[in-house]
Amino acid sequence: MKITFLGTGSYPTKARNSQSTLIQFDNNKAVIVDCGEGTQRQLMQLSFIPEIEAIFLTHHHIDHIAGLPGLIMYLYSITKKRIKIIAPGKALEISRVLVKALVEFIENPADYIEVCESSSWRFGDVKANTFRTFHTIDSVGYSFKHKGVKFTICGDLSFQNREQRYHIIKAIEGSDSAVIDIVHLKDKDSLELLEYFRDINKILIPTPIGRDELIKKALKINGTIIPNDFDFLQI
Asked: CA angle at residue 68 from 62 to 74, to 5 degrees?
């Protein structure tokens, strides 16, 4: 499994694009998780573009969904195939509106599949599971399993009590690597979560801005990574 970080920021800057992650599997299939502004341009910078099976959205906020119409147009232009958009209800609702309004010259360029907090989905020998992330009313994260490897990506993450924290931990457990958002967590909660998973690679996306002390402490915990755009991880 190869993970390429197309965008690692909350919003576009000179150094970072908005959030998007490409996951490539050994069966020559791939998925994209989240689709921030400019994702299609980031994808075009790659030397090889795999066959994109689906676009998974964690929730409906602009830094996770604004690049969707452009990406749909680009993928359809090179494949002439409908792309699956897999998302919780609010994100799926907005996806339909965006694609219909801005990709109106392509008839039905996408299939829409709604997920909830405990959905599962398969293509070939890849299995995806969802879990709640408590950032919005229906936000989810995804775990992908392929040939004995588990990769988890949380999207924006929040928890307000012990039960929610336990739910997040159980979802990440067993992962070989995980993308963990700490932007919306208190410093203490962030460090405790990273320390709990000190034996796996923990990728911090988006990069916390203005929290230099937190970043310093986080990087001292074994396995913590803050990637740049186009960095990749082979797991």
From this structure: 150
Which residues have a catalytic role annotated?
63
| Whole-number pLDDT of residue 209 | 82
138 Cβ partners below 8 Å, 6+ apart? 59, 88, 89, 90, 91, 116, 117
Percent pLDDT > 90 in the chain is 86
CA distance 77 to 8: 26
**Domain at 2-234, CATH class:** alpha beta
Helix (H, G, I), strand (E, B) or coil at 89: helix
| Structural domain boundaries in the chain | 2-234
Note the residue count of the chain.
Answer: 235
Query: Distance (Å, rounded) from C-alpha 70 to C-alpha 109?
Result: 12
Answer yes or no: are the C-beta atoms of 177 and 205 closer than 8 Å: no
